[in-house]
Every structure is written in C-alpha cells, then in structure tokens.
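Question:
Now give any protein.
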Amino acid sequence: MNTYIFGHIKPDLDSVVAAISFTEYRKQMGDIDVIPAMSGAANPETAFVFNKFQQSLPQQITAAEILPDDRVILVDHNETDQRIDNLGQEQIVSIYDHHTVYLNLTHPIEIIVLPLGSSNTIAWKLFKQNNLTIPQNIATLMLCAILSDTVGLKSSTTTETDKLAVADLSAVSNIADINSLTLDIFKAKSNVSALSDEQVILNDYKIFDFGKKVFIGQLETVEQDTLLSGRKAGLLAALQAIKEREGVDYIILAITDILKVNTKLLVDGAGETDLIQKAFGGTVQENILDIGAKMSRKKDIAPAIEKALIQ
C-alpha cells in the first residue's frame, strides 16, 4: 500500500513543491510509504525552478495508477472539480490547503486548512511545530513556491507567517538575494511566447462551482500591456472555444502585472461583462475591466464573483 501526495490538476509551482514538502514532513513523522506526485505536466515556471536548482520533478499520476488499497493526500486544493478525474473519495486520508473549503466527504479525515499565502507555508509551519529539520534542497523549493504564490509577498493573501517562512527558508537555503530570485521566477512565469492562446489561458486556471460554473484563468506577467495589445483577439477567441468545450457558464481571464501590482480582466460575452461589472464596479471597455491591485484569484477575484452571483 502506498500513499500518494499530489496537488490540483494543471499544477502550479506551489502545488508541485507542496507534494514534495509534505512528503518529507510525513516521512519525518513516521509515515514512510509516501510518494510525491503531480496531477499533470509541470508548467514553465515550475520547470524553470526545478532546473535552476537541479531537482527532480515528482512523477505524474492518474487515478488509474492508484490501486484500490492505496491512500491519497491532497495538497493545495480540496474541491472535487480540481482533483484528478475518477479519484475514489474513500481513498483520501488527509488534506493540506490554504483555499476556501468546498467539501462533502463520506468519512472523517485529517484536514489542515490555514489562511496563509501558500501551501508550503503550512508545511513550513508544521515542520517548525514538530521541531523537524527541513533539508536544504527542499527548503529552496519551498522558498520559491511561497514567493511565487504570494507574488513576491505582495499579494493580499500574504501574512506575517509567510514572511517569517521566507526569512527562515532563505537562511536554510543560503539565498540572500530574495529580490533577484523573485524576479527570475517572475520572468519564467511570464514567458508565454511559446504558448498558443488556449495554452496561455489553460496554463493556470480553476473552475469554481458557485451555483454556476465559473472558469477563472490567471496569467501573471511583467508585460500586461504588450500581451493585451498583441494577443487580445486570439485570447478572446480562445476564451469562447474553451467555454464551449468545458461547458462552463462563465469564463474570465485575469491578467496580472506582478511588477505594477495590477490586474485586468478579459472577457468576451454579455454575461461575463455584466458579472464582472457587478462584482468589481467600473465599466468594461473593449472587453477589459481594470480591477486595480486585486492580484489574488483566491482572495480577491473568486469571492467577489461568488458574491455577485448570489446577490
């Protein structure tokens, strides 16, 4: 019997590293048969970080590869829509997450959900609470993941605990220049020149069930204006194609400039236009709504959309 630890579909850096950090944590706590995995291919940012620090990515896994007596630990997600397809709910034994909880389980399990900026901050906190040592290579990956998920500690989701974790992990990693590392991560995350318009949207997305299915993609970039001026038409067409294929009620692309600390929402449809205007105020102009410094899909964007739908 194995215990697989993995994050959400379309894994981001925090999700992939969390599988590794929580595997190390569980092993040090005595759970030796734990295996880190990914629910999909690594995105360019994740590949960059693992290559930069010469670390091996976890194996990719599907529900078909998980045997009936295997156990599953979910990290960086909890919702059914964000799990791998056909995963047996009865196999889930633990969840470590920092997102809003949408659960309806048939059996009691261990759940640790904390309002922190990154799943890896939760892992760091558990290491510290249990007086465990974080290996340097894992500390380096955790540092990168927290910097990524908190947008260099600028996101509204950032807490004092995230800042403490970054300070501690940078010392363990022997990385003094956090700003330089953050910029390197931003550049890797922002490089979408080789991606098609659909791939840009699908690179980082979540589907929320707010009574209506809402697809929210997010692109974090340092070239927001260039992207919108050069690729807007293609992105709008891709939004419509993805909406039809996924069968969602609404689809929104958030394009976040991580240097300017600004997000613009791109939509193509009267329903989406009405929804985001209701959620954030302002007026959509040429398919774009500037929502200012709201950078977090989890804390700033999704809750406002949910509130607008139930009003």
Summary: The longest strand covers residues 213-221. The chain has ten helices and eleven strands. The chain has two domains: 3-187, 197-310. Residues 3-187 form a domain with the inorganic pyrophosphatase (n-terminal core) fold (CATH 3.90.1640.10).
